[in-house]
Each structure stands twice: as structure tokens, then as C-alpha cells.
Design goal:
Elements (H helix, E strand, L loop, with lengths): L1 E10 L8 E6 L7 E5 L4 E4 L6 E4 L9 E7 L2 E6 L4 E4 L6 E5 L18 E5 L6 H4 E6 L4 E6 L5 E5 L5 E3 L2 E3 L3 E3 L5 E3 L8 E7 L5 E6 L3 E6 L1 H18 L18
Parallel strand pairs: 1-17
Antiparallel strand pairs: 1-20, 2-3, 3-4, 4-5, 6-7, 7-8, 8-9, 10-11, 12-13, 14-17, 15-16, 18-19, 19-20
């Protein structure tokens, strides 16, 4: 197990306290982060400073936003208003909108539920009661759910205090590699941590968000040490090479 160190911490909103619901990497070439929160806002955040770049729609993106996903460079959001909206992360403008009867099957939503129940739907069936295939009781509030394969589902519940990130790998079966886990000491304190992403584009930085309204950036000591050596190597490569002050054989006269 390795322990990550806190790099930065910043509140998601300077005006009203807001829970951080979900974090999504933005495909803009800069590694920016998209964040939805309990004030129903969608914000684009600078990954280096955790400061606001822009806020989509300049206000609420939904009445009760719950879902955030990447959609081929756009950001797709869903809410309790039974709408799916797509946003341009560069301008913050809305580019598409789908109503309750025209939701595209290609969009995978990450739902947030507090009853601990994971509902499995066949989205090709329009009637909600008929579309419900199975209900799984996870036992705690769910903030992550997704597919591991065509027949396997996963769901993750909330955590308080320290957070351990444990790799999930498949050999002959799915196993948790606890000896390869990463611990975030303190995490978000006594507040519930709602979401995290491990972003390779930002030198394997881990970003977390929770009910304390904070976005935090973490990095393991091993990665920080490797980054330091990479920086020193790049500096050495940019320095001019020293030329020896010794006498040159080429300039000396050689008699017969």
C-alpha cells in the first residue's frame, strides 16, 4: 500500500456551500475537469489550480442534476427533470437536449441513489415498469455504478475519513489487489466522498470531491519523486554543454 499526499484543495463554489456529486475528465487537450454539484451547476475546473474556468449555462443546468458523462468531446448531464442535455466545455453553451421520450440509447448515465438500491433497466423498453429487469440491494448510498462486462455490474458506496483505492482486476475472476492499494489520508474528513478520478494526463493525479464542497488533488510519493527526476533531467538537457579548456592537439605544430 502507498499513501498519497494532498497537492491542492479548493471549494467548488465561493458563494453557497455545495456538495460535489461527480467529476469527469474533459477531452479538451488540457486535462480540464468537469464537476456537477448540489447547486445544480456544471463547472469546468483548471486541473493545476482547481480554480474555475467557466460555468455552463451561467446558472443551473437542471432542476436536480444527478448525472455527468463524456460524450465524444461534449459533456452530457441528466437530472430529475427527466432531461438529458449536452454542453460544449469550451464555451459552456448547450448544444443538444433530449426529453423523456427521446433519450438516446448510446448515453450511459452514472446515477446517484441514496436508498442503496441498484436498478437494472432494459432501455429499449419505453415503459419504466416493464423496463425494470432487476433490483439489487447494495446496502449503502450508491455514487458509482457501471458495467464490468456484458453480464456483470459494479456499484460503489460512499466512504468517510480515509479512502483506500484498490485495483480491481480480472484473471479467472474479479479480484481486489489490496497490496496495490493507494490510501488518501484524511480524504474529506467526516464528510462523505462522492466521486474520484485517476487522471493519467495530469501525471497520475487523483482528484476527489465530497460533501464538504471541496475538490482535492492527490499524488503518491513515488509519482512525485519520478516527476522531480523528470524535471531535473529536462533541465540538464536544456543546459549548454561545457567545453574543455585543455589544449587542442589540432592547433599544435608537429615537427618531422
Amino acid at each position: 500500500m502507498s499513501t498519497s499526499q494532498l497537492l491542492h484543495s479548493s471549494p467548488i463554489s465561493s458563494s453557497v456551500p455545495s456538495y460535489v456529486y461527480a467529476i469527469q475528465a474533459v477531452q479538451d487537450g488540457n486535462g480540464s475537469l468537469a464537476v456537477i454539484s448540489s447547486d445544480d451547476a456544471l463547472r469546468i475546473i483548471d486541473p493545476h489550480t482547481l480554480q474555475l474556468i467557466l460555468q455552463c449555462a451561467h446558472n443551473k443546468v437542471h432542476e436536480g442534476v444527478t448525472c455527468l458523462s463524456d460524450l465524444n468531446g461534449l459533456l452530457a448531464t441528466g437530472g430529475r427533470d427527466k432531461m438529458i442535455r449536452c454542453w460544449d466545455p469550451r464555451s459552456g453553451n448547450r448544444s443538444m437536449e433530449f426529453g423523456d421520450d427521446e433519450q438516446p440509447n448510446s448515453i450511459l448515465q452514472k446515477g446517484l441513489t441514496q436508498d442503496g438500491l441498484l436498478n437494472v433497466f432494459d432501455i429499449s423498453i419505453k415503459d419504466e415498469d416493464d423496463a425494470l429487469v432487476q433490483i439489487l440491494n447494495h446496502g449503502s448510498s450508491i455514487h458509482h455504478a457501471g458495467l464490468l462486462s456484458d453480464t456483470e455490474l459494479c456499484a460503489v458506496s460512499h466512504d468517510e475519513g480515509n479512502l483506500d483505492l484498490v485495483p480491481l482486476r480480472f484473471t479467472s475472476e474479479w479480484i481486489l489487489e489490496r497490496d496495490q492499494s493507494i490510501q488518501l489520508l484524511g480524504a474529506h474528513g467526516e464528510e462523505i466522498l462522492w466521486d474520484f478520478i485517476n487522471e493519467e494526463l495530469q501525471e497520475r493525479t487523483i482528484f476527489t470531491g465530497g460533501e464538504d464542497g471541496l475538490i482535492k488533488a492527490w499524488r503518491t510519493p513515488e509519482v512525485m519523486e519520478a516527476s522531480k527526476f523528470d524535471l531535473e533531467d529536462s533541465r540538464d538537457a536544456s543546459r549548454p554543454k561545457k567545453i574543455s579548456a585543455g589544449k587542442s592537439d589540432k592547433a599544435r605544430f608537429k615537427p618531422y
